[in-house]
Amino acid sequence: MSEKIGLKEAISIGIGGMVGGGIFAVLGLAVSLGKGGTPISFLIAGIIALITSYSYVKLSLTYPDRGGTVRFINQGFGKGIFSGGINNLLWISYIIMLSLYASAFGSYAPNLFPLTGDKAVDYHLYLSAIIIFATAINYYSIKVVGKIESYAVIIKLVILLSFVCIGIYGLFGNSNLSQLSVANWQSPLQLLTAGMVIFVAYEGFELIANAAPDIVNPTRNIPRAYYYSVIFVILLYVIIAIITIGSLPFSKIANAQDYVLAEAAEPMLGKIGFTIITIAALISTFSAINASLYGGSRVSYEIAEDDELPHELTSKIWNHPVGLLITALATLLLANTLNLESISTAGSVGFLLIFAMVNFTGLKLSRAIQGNKIIPLSGFILCLIALIALISQQFSTNKTGVIVSLGITALCFLIEYIYKKTESGKIRLAG
Question: What is the pTM of this model?
Answer without folding.
Answer: 0.89
